[in-house]
Design goal:
This protein is α/β, with parallel strands linked by helices and about 160 residues long. Helix content is about 45%, strand content about 10%.
């Protein structure tokens, strides 16, 4: 099953945090080469998060992103005209966050399962998500919204193997 990781999910994986269940991490790790994708919109989100002090990276976000893609071999999908057309054609109720709309549209257009902890995305009935059933089985709460949280370092995985 091919996956699209939202920005929080890729930060959780790279940061080796407990924000994703072991089952979700295993599914991402076990995915065959070429079946885990990220969106170019995550580049913009990373840059904004670092600029605003909401995450701390040990290097500039551009170098961090390049290292992430090299280490993981994940494929970064571009934001195309077709995806933007899908963004503004999503059936209601439509998510208000523009970046999340791009992620939802990308997953729909590319026929990918969106991996997220964002409760608003999980509640949107028009995109397949990984965490919805898996979160319910594990009784996990939505931890995808980082607003109002202290900045945290997102580096352990890039510095070494995940424990």
């Amino acid at each position: 099953m091919p996956y699209l990781l939202d920005t929080c999910t890729l930060l959780f994986v790279a940061g080796n945090t407990a924000d994703l269940s072991p089952a979700t991490l295993q599914l991402i790790d076990a995915a065959p080469p070429g079946e885990v994708f990220v969106s170019a919109i995550s580049v913009a989100e990373l840059a904004c998060l670092q600029e605003r002090g909401r995450i701390t990276l040990k290097q500039h976000w551009r170098a961090w992103w390049a290292a992430l893609l090299q280490r993981t071999a994940w494929t970064c999908l571009p934001i195309t005209a077709e995806i933007m057309a899908e963004v503004y054609s999503l059936p209601p109720p439509v998510h208000r966050d523009p970046a999340d709309r791009v992620l939802i549209a990308t997953a729909r257009y590319e026929r990918l399962t969106l991996v997220t902890t964002d409760g608003k995305i999980l509640g949107y009935p028009h995109v397949p998500t990984l965490s919805e059933g898996e979160r319910a089985r594990h009784g996990e709460a939505d931890r995808g919204d980082t607003r109002g949280r202290a900045a945290r370092v997102v580096e352990p995985w890039l510095a070494g193997e995940r424990a």
